[in-house]
Amino acid sequence: MAKRKAKKVRRRVRKSAGAGKLPKEAVTLIVHLRARDGQELLLDAELRALVTPTRKEEGCLVYDLHRSADSAGAFLFHEVWATREAHTAHTRTDHFLRWNARKDALCADRASSFWKQIL
Q1: Does the structural domain 30-115 have CATH classification 3.30.70.100?
Q2: Phi/psi of residue 38, each to 5°?
Q3: Confidence check: pLDDT of 17 > 70
Q4: CB atoms < 10 A from the CB of 54, how many?
Q5: pTM for this prediction
């Protein structure tokens, strides 16, 4: 019987749908957004454009975009950052600054809050 070589699997931090215990300093950010009337498609496109570059950032553990199952113009970001400082660095990136300049024209309202994992 031929021996099979075990494949080495490189472990990396997942950038979406993270599970398990987070690092002690990690923070979760939940962001709710609702599009202005008639701006749903543009908001969708702007939010999608944030995902790929943000997932590549140092300290980004999870960055998932969701759309409401009940309202086409409502979106939610579920973000997990290794530290609060990592999130602060995110707010200085070109892609975030572009978003920040456009958000008021696209969003009727926004709400966000930081969370810490306890279990």
Answers
A1: yes
A2: 80, -5
A3: no
A4: 19
A5: 0.82
Residue 85 and residue 92 in contact, taking contact as beta carbons nearer than 8 Å? no
The SS3 assignment for 77 reads strand
Tell me which DSSP letter residue 26 carries.
-
DSSP 70: S
Please list the alpha-helical segments (H only) found in the chain.
40-55, 84-90, 94-106
Q: Would you tell me how many other CB atoms lie within 10 Å of the CB of residue 93?
A: 15
Task: Say yes or no to pLDDT of 6 above 80.
Answer: no
The pLDDT of residue 4? 52
Q: Show Cβ contacts of residue 42 under 8 Å, excluding neighbours closer than 6 positions.
A: 35, 106
**Domain extent listing, the chain:** 30-115
